[in-house]
Hints:
By secondary structure, the protein is α+β, with helices and mostly antiparallel strands. The chain has five helices and 13 strands. The strands form three sheets. It has a six-stranded mixed sheet with strand order 5-6-7-9-12-13, covered by helices on one side. A four-stranded mixed sheet has the order 1-2-3-4. Strand 6 (134-138), helix 3 and strand 7 (160-165) form a beta-alpha-beta unit. The protein is globular. The termini are far apart.
Amino acid sequence: MGDNPAANLDCAEEVIVALAKEGAQVICLPELFASRYFCQEENADHYALAEAVPGPTTGRFERVAKALDVALVLSLFEKRAPGLYHNTAAVIDGPRGYLGKYRKMHIPDDPRYYEKYYFTPGDLGFKTFDLRIGRIGVLICWDQWYPEAARLTAMRGAEILFYPTAIGWHPEEKASHGVQQHEAWETIQRSHAVANGCFVASVNRTGFEPDPAGEEGAGIQFWGQTFAAGPDGAILERLPANGPAQRVITMDLDRIAEQRHGWPFLRDRRVEAYQQITERYLDD
């Protein structure tokens, strides 16, 4: 993503058209694809990037989705009211148009990921969307570390969990922590696929985005490596670490029942024993 939001939207449309020509039925873009990842700093000027959802961007891509007969998952900076903003994913399904939205529930606050300055936590709960090809769930980036979010979305019938994502290395930490960080990120999401017997698609940003404040050498090196996993946790496809890339892959949704018959984790849940999961921590 570059500095020019209009150019980013044009690029997104070009990619969507290309993927549709390859036969894609559902297309997911990375987190906050319309701009640079502005959360690297706390700067009130960036609120100007926000818009209503539904709004102008969803309207534009509704027309694109209708013309191409595809479904889209679009991660946007939502302006709900003055001073009230969300990190939101909109779902559009071809001629059916805008189906609804999911607001990111878990909001990080880490160096160069100052999202709590911009976003309030979602209040729509964990949601699924019935597309013509099946039922999908949408979660966003930091949500991917929480098994509760994946479980509750899968319990609502999601066959595919989509995670629009913006995650990467601090350049100064890559040598010491890079491999471990990336492996943890991929492992937790593959575990959601296994535990819930569903497909997972994590769609990440790529490329280096410098610190907006201009600090020499600072920024985020987004690690790319967008991937999809099957209900057994096996990787179906992994994109490169460097440079933009896109891929059309096939997900056979009949595999979900087959996997759940063999690994009946949903059947064997002891739901009567889980009431304490709603506590913050189980103190003595």
